[in-house]
Description:
- There is one protein chain.
- By secondary structure, the protein is an alpha+beta fold.
- It folds into three domains: 7-53, Uridine Diphospho-n-acetylenolpyruvylglucosamine Reductase, domain 2; 58-173, Uridine Diphospho-n-acetylenolpyruvylglucosamine Reductase, domain 3 (2-Layer Sandwich), CATH 3.30.465.10; 180-273, Enolase-like, domain 1 (2-Layer Sandwich), CATH 3.30.390.
- Helices cover 36% and strands 24% of the residues.
- The chain is built from eleven helices and 14 strands.
- The strands form four sheets. A five-stranded antiparallel beta sheet has the order 4-5-10-6-7. Strands 11-12-13-14 form a four-stranded antiparallel beta sheet, with helices on both faces. Strands 1-3-2 form a three-stranded parallel beta sheet, covered by helices on one side.
- Strand 2, helix 2 and strand 3 form a beta-alpha-beta unit.
- Helix 10 crosses helix 11 (255-273).
- It starts with 6 loop residues before the first strand and ends with a helix.
- The mean pLDDT is 96.
- Bound molecules: flavin-adenine dinucleotide (FAD).
Amino acid sequence: MKAHSxxxxxxxxxxxxxxxxxxxxGEGRVLAGGQTLGPMLNMRLAxxxxxxxxxxxxxxxxxxxxxxxxxxxxxxxxxVFEDWIDPTPLGQLLSRAGGSIAYRAIRNRGTIxxxxxxxxxxxxxxTTMSLLEATLLTASTKARRQLxxxxxMLGTYSTALNPDExxxxxxxxxxxSEARWGYxxxxxxxxxxPEALGAVIFDQPRKVGRVIAGGMNGRPLSLPTVxxxxxxxxxxxxxxEVEKAIQESEPGFDSVDLRHHAVAVRRAILMxxx
Length: 274
Ligand SMILES: Cc1cc2nc3c(=O)[nH]c(=O)nc-3n(C[C@H](O)[C@H](O)[C@H](O)COP(=O)(O)OP(=O)(O)OC[C@H]3O[C@@H](n4cnc5c(N)ncnc54)[C@H](O)[C@@H]3O)c2cc1C
């Protein structure tokens, strides 16, 4: 099958891109790396009248380092993170997450912003940015907004973005050099989305302890009781304890899926404590 016909625009700045989207009155669609939208167009799961290709906007491809945070443009490719030579815990975590996605050809084109805007619950950046409590910076012709990750992703394939709004950048708080993290994905076949994801961070100097289960039925699930147990004891909880915590927050998984999620979380904790 081939894509339905559409008008193609390649603006050179964010203002022009948001103006084009506003003029399309909900019939426009942003194209970033095209790794998800391309197949959707070909299968006619998406039939926009206008495609706004943001791949030529320089502002969206920058990475800015500040004392307490990194601001990453929405069009930074997964491969940029994979190749990142940054020995800090944050640099290593971002490199692990970016390098875990699909395979190199997809990582060369797919973008962090495209992944977050598509809001697939099994996406690596969705789990990682939830773990890091990133803030998403957006722009439309009317306003610029800052949305915490928890407010940006509303559910499966659903975000708080308006039809004329672009994701511009992701503001990621830095973690301390003593922080310990773990990232574990259960994936049957190399190059595919993971079925379950565990992501944890324990950053004592900043008093941060977070345990996240990804690949759920919607937004990533935070497991504060598990995080508190690890922070207080320095031990990894047993599998039934993790299963119980997941089930209490998000009931309805069958025993196999529940086990997958609990194993991913537990192995991420083991990795952080190793
Ligand atoms: C075979 C295969 C395996 C994959 N495996 C994994 C995996 O293991 N883990 C994983 O996380 N991902 C995986 N992916 C997805 C991949 O990471 C994509 O790159 C990503 O989901 C979309 O990024 P993109 O830049 O290609 O976005 P696009 O396909 O261009 O766009 C995706 C959606 O986001 C919207 N959009 C894009 N950018 C913006 C923006 N700045 N503002 C507003 N809206 C925007 C588009 O309109 C579209 O709706 C896989 C994809 C494939 C094809």
